[in-house]
Amino acid sequence: MKHAPARPLRTFTFCTLLAAAATGAAASGSHADAIGQPGVAAKATRTVQVDMTDAMRFTPADVQVKQGETVRFVVKNSGQLKHELVLGTAQDLKAHYEAMKKHPEMEHAEPNMVTLAPGKTGEVVWQFTKAGKVDFGCLQPGHYDAGMKGAVTVAALPVSREVNRR
């Protein structure tokens, strides 16, 4: 009895792992808690306009939000190159970026990201459930290394104090 070559299984396994890393598994899996969760547009408390340019910069590159806030990011690609905005932890962005460098034409779409052709506008609606820092970057090959990154600082909600009455 002949056995089928192992190559298709290895290829399938590699593609599955690559897809998990490259599609923002952090946004749809257990790591999502670190950066928040997809938001509902109708519940957005404000809109932040973000511009992406071929100078490999986001404007603004620093955004301040409050814990629990849902923000609608309206993202415009003012450049002549394809750009994207991806929210994530620094570790997840770096892993995704490495996968993108190996497979630059890989297509992916997750709630924590928007990929835009030159001149196009899109949006990401996100609820920031944890205090701390959420990174963002353009993971098109070469862009992140050139400095196309930023951060959302999520301010903690004040701790409420209950008054004990007896």
Your description of this structure?
The chain is of the alpha+beta class and 166 residues long. The protein contains four helices and ten strands. The chain has helices at 7-22, 25-28, 32-35, 90-102, and strands spanning 37-38, 46-53, 57-59, 62-66, 70-77, 83-88, 113-116, 121-127, 132-137, 149-155. The strands form two sheets. It has a five-stranded mixed beta sheet with strand order 1-8-5-2-3. A five-stranded mixed beta sheet has the order 4-10-9-6-7. The longest helix is centred in the N-terminal third of the chain and has 16 residues, at 7-22. It is globular and about 45 Å long. It starts with 6 loop residues before the first helix and ends in an 11-residue tail after the last strand. The relative contact order is 0.23.
Question: Helices and strands in order, then pairings?
Answer:
Elements: H1 7-22, H2 25-28, H3 32-35, E1 37-38, E2 46-53, E3 57-59, E4 62-66, E5 70-77, E6 83-88, H4 90-102, E7 113-116, E8 121-127, E9 132-137, E10 149-155
Parallel strand pairs: 2-5, 4-10
Antiparallel strand pairs: 1-8, 2-3, 5-8, 6-7, 6-9, 9-10
